[in-house]
Structure to design on (665 residues):
């Protein structure tokens, strides 16, 4: 993002003083970097288009959050979906957190995300570091193996057979290990390590640092921004993973949140008090429960999103440009 | 290049299990190494010298090799009458029998193939250009603040899972959803969208646009920011309008990235949104929503026809790979960079 910002205003800093900037008075509209400012009609159209686009993204979330909080009477009256709640009722949340299937799935998702992200970061940074050691034995060949793996996908059935062979079916490891190393992220991390100044590494080496110390004391501390992005990407990936869970988890008691979401929200299975682990006679409307589950699955993503947003342009671009 | 590198890994198994022994020693150039003085070392000395690096690489490489490369071996069941309780070792070999499904005119397979191609076509025509247009729009905004706010909002759906996206669409467009409630409360007829097979392709296309258009602009915006500003200045002096500048400077500047993404898209053309479609099959039925990937899943994992499913998956993968290679070659022939250069 910052690259764009500076590029736009960079005309002033250019050494070329004889540029066209000064001699452009005759034009009716001001010109920035050689591009004329848009006219009022164009600006209005753009404004309308972008406002509609943003509204299409934001409004559904407003509706979902409102419905999950609205009182049962209002939900029933509205026939399902409430845009502005008149009163706040947290009973839907109390029910799904009462210890039933949803709570259970939530814990599983948290566990998988935490363990998975840690493992992924460890594997990705160590491999990325090793592959950045140009000239070391086997590094070129290993890099090629990693890059080629980006070109193909082993397929659904073969992946299933490997997980089955390793005895991971119906264990939480099936949700973690197969996706623990993303070749793309390895390439991104490697690209970052490669551009670290050689002098620092050589100096540390002369002082007797081992390879592990170089990685742990120099490589990692200097690459915090890229680690943040890659870590958040992995985290969001584990949290959102649906395909692996569908494929490898037939035991419903080990389902992560996404599968519960599918069963009770997308497929619309009824959530009874037995599923929720409560013995309340009167449940809130199904819609409120469904929306509460949706909110619970969206909120973690919304919480990390600002951090992601700040870094991801940088992280993505390192990979795209150098990969 | 694919074929040359892999066998090395296998051969090196005799060296030392820990090393993984990639690369056949003497051929790996060592001139670029940190210690150019000790260039003339045998591969064994270099392996011992660099053991720490290899050890760091080992766990990550192991995951990639097992789940990407060794997994490929599972494709042999395409040639077997595979029975899970017998395993690969004891299942019967049946040659190409499983592949007959591709030619026998099986209606379910043909339907999956047709749906795949239709959806890919729709996505190339409607989904692919959307981020390019949006990126041009965002790039032309003068205010950086406005642009950043719009970007923050439009990137967000990319980070939601398909389950959430499908659920959100159901809530907004479903029978009791936002749209239909609004229509009913104003005395209009509700529209049947969710679960309506006639509207299904429009629905899934708009889902993909909603989820990923914003995020996909990120690459295009980076390219736009990198276009030489002096080109615009020079053309402005020559009296070029904004539209002419877009046509003659901006779009040509974006051409390499557009071609690269089109090649990748082509390679992916037989894999259309597994998660997105499998979530909605129950609502609209297999007739319009079964694609090759869901066919493989339904036949193999759910139906137990492992061999047939693997055969379809294998052919699909090979065609995808061939498409990328051919498209890349074609791009080179037209003087473009393409995705990679071998």
């Amino acid at each position: 993002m910052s690259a764009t910002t500076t590029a736009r205003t960079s005309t002033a800093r250019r050494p070329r003083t004889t540029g066209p900037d000064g001699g452009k008075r005759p034009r009716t509209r001001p010109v920035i970097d050689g591009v004329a400012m848009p006219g009022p009609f164009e600006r209005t159209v753009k404004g309308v288009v972008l406002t509609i686009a943003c509204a299409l993204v934001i409004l559904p979330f407003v509706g979902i959050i409102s419905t999950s909080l609205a009182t049962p009477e209002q939900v029933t009256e509205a026939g399902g979906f409430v845009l502005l709640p008149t009163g706040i009722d947290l009973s839907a949340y109390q029910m799904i957190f009462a210890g039933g299937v949803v709570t259970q799935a939530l814990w599983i998702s948290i566990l998988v995300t935490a363990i998975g992200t840690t493992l992924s970061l460890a594997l990705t940074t160590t491999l990325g570091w090793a592959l950045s050691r140009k000239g070391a034995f086997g590094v070129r060949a290993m890099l090629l193996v990693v890059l080629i793996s980006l070109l193909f996908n082993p397929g659904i059935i073969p992946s299933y057979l490997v997980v089955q062979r390793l005895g991971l079916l119906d264990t939480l490891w099936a949700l973690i290990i197969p996706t623990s190393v993303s070749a793309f992220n390895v390439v991104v991390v490697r690209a970052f390590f490669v551009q670290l100044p050689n002098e620092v590494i050589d100096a540390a080496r002369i002082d007797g640092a081992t390879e592990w110390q170089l990685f742990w004391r120099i490589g990692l501390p200097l690459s915090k921004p890229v680690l943040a992005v890659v870590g958040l990407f992995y985290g969001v990936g584990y949290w959102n993973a649906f395909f692996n869970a569908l494929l490898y988890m037939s035991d419903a008691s080990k389902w992560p949140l996404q599968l519960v979401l599918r069963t009770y929200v997308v497929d619309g299975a009824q959530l009874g008090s037995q599923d929720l682990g409560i013995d309340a006679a009167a449940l809130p409307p199904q819609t409120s429960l469904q929306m509460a589950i949706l909110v619970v699955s969206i909120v973690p993503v919304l919480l990390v999103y600002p951090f992601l947003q700040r870094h991801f342009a940088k992280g993505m671009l390192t990979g795209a440009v150098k990969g | 290049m694919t074929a040359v590198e892999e066998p090395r890994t296998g051969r090196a198994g005799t060296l030392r299990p820990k090393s993984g022994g990639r690369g056949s020693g003497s051929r790996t150039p060592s001139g670029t190494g940190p210690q150019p003085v000790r260039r003339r070392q045998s591969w064994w000395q270099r392996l011992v010298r660099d053991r720490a690096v290899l050890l760091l690489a080992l766990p990550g490489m192991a995951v990639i090799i097992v789940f990407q490369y060794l997994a490929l071996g599972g494709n042999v069941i395409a040639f077997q009458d595979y029975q899970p309780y017998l395993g690969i070792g004891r299942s019967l070999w049946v040659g190409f029998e499983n592949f007959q499904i591709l030619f026998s005119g099986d209606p379910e397979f043909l339907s999956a193939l047709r749906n795949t191609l239709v959806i890919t076509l729709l996505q190339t025509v409607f989904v692919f250009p959307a981020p390019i247009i949006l990126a041009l729009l965002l790039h032309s905004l003068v205010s950086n603040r406005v642009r950043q706010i719009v970007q923050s909002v439009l990137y967000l759906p990319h980070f939601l899972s398909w389950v959430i996206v499908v659920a959100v669409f159901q809530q907004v467009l479903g029978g009791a959803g936002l749209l239909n409630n609004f229509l009913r409360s104003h005395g209009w007829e509700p529209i049947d969208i969710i679960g309506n097979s006639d509207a299904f392709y429009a629905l899934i296309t708009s889902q993909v646009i909603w989820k990923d258009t914003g995020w996909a602009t990120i690459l295009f915006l980076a390219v736009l920011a990198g276009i030489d500003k002096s080109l615009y200045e020079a053309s402005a002096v020559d009296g070029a309008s904004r539209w002419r500048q877009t046509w003659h400077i901006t779009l040509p500047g974006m051409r390499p990235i557009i071609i690269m993404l089109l090649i990748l898209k082509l390679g992916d053309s037989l894999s259309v949104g597994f998660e997105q479609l499998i979530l909605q099959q129950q609502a609209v039925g297999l007739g319009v929503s079964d694609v090759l990937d869901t066919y493989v899943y339904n036949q193999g994992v759910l139906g137990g026809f492992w061999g047939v499913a693997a055969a379809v998956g294998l052919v699909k993968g090979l065609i995808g790979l061939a498409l990328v290679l051919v498209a890349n070659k074609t791009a080179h022939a037209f003087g473009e960079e393409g995705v990679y250069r071998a």
